[in-house]
Write a structure and sequence with these properties.
Layout (H helix, E strand, L loop, with lengths): L1 E6 L6 E4 L4 H13 L4 E5 L5 E5 L3 E7 L12
Antiparallel strand pairs: 1-2, 1-5, 3-4
InterPro entries: DUF3107
């Protein structure tokens, strides 16, 4: 699952590839936004943990990773 996070006052977004499903990511985002001191914690596919303060998140996009296309017809 690919999660893209827009952080306030930062020009680039943060993209994390995680094994969590969309419902798990949505619950983590909701929990981070519910508390004034909430922190979004995501573990990427390599086992690294990404922490983003909830009050700093501008937006979050949750979506499937685009599968690579195979074959000559996709050129």
């Amino acid at each position: 699952m690919e999660v893209t996070i827009g952080v306030q006052n930062v020009s680039r977004e943060l993209t994390v590839e995680t094994d969590a499903d969309a419902a798990e990511v949505a619950r983590a985002v909701d929990a981070a936004l519910a508390s004034p001191d909430g922190v979004l914690r995501l573990t990427d596919t390599k086992g690294r943990t990404v922490l983003v303060p909830g009050r700093s998140m501008g937006w979050v996009q949750v979506g499937e990773t685009e599968k690579g296309k195979v074959g000559f017809g996709n050129v």
